Amino acid sequence: MAARFLLHHAPKTRSLGSLWLLEEAGADYDLHWHDTAAGTHRRPDYLAVNPAGKLPALVDRGPAGDWAGVVVTEAAAIAAYLADALPEAALAPPVGDPARAAYATWMAYGPGVLEPALADRAWPRAGEPPATAIGWPSFEKAAQRVEAALERSPWLLGERFSAADVTVGGLLAWITQWGIWSPTPNVTRYVAALDARPARQAAYRKGAAPA
Q1: How far apart are CA 107 and CA 129, in angstroms?
Q2: How many beta carbons lie within 10 A of that of residue 129, not counting itself?
């Protein structure tokens, strides 16, 4: 019987975060490998899965394997979906838990604030946009909010590791490795703690190249 989840994946793409989440959750999954250099993510069969032609995409076959056409795209959406679909993994506070408010905020903060702020930093605009035209500050200011949260706790939700640490922490870990940003001591500690997680190490190992 096929695994419940099928992840469309290629090394060095955002799908690594989705693979990490699957490992954190102890989920039953298969990998469909893509070769971005060969453009397999632009072929008609994959565009039928994700019309944007981006990775990752997650197919959920359902607990009994009888679902068809259930697809989640966008890395942050996949993270939120998996955390809710697999509550036994405790990767998200349940609805009704007060911590759900902070969790929801952080889940949106990665793709909605940190990523566009990073893009502005990496590829500066020709001119400053009007202050009311964009919904994010400079990357430095955006990262300060993460730093402030980590002054008090090891994870974004305090003592509780969550999918938000994958979406936000994974981005910070990546740009630290890229070398375009010098993290503060708290973020350095945070990234080291993320890198030490067995599930993240397994994701790097399994997601590096097809077996």
Answers
A1: 26
A2: 10
- Tokens read off for 189: 């500690």
Burial class (CB in 10 A: 0-12, 13-18, 19+), 58: buried
Q: Which residues contact 131 (CB under 8 A, 6 or more apart)?
A: none
Q: For the CA atoms of the chain, what is the radius of gyration? A: 18
Residue that has been written with the tokens 């905020």 in this structure? 105
Three-state SS for 63?
A: coil
Average pLDDT over residues 79-105: 98
| pLDDT tens digits along 27-75 | 999 999 999 999 999 999 999 999 999 999 999 999 999 999 999 999 9
Give the containing element (helix H, strand E) for 199: helix 198-206
Among 182, 190, 201, 184, CA closest to 156: 190
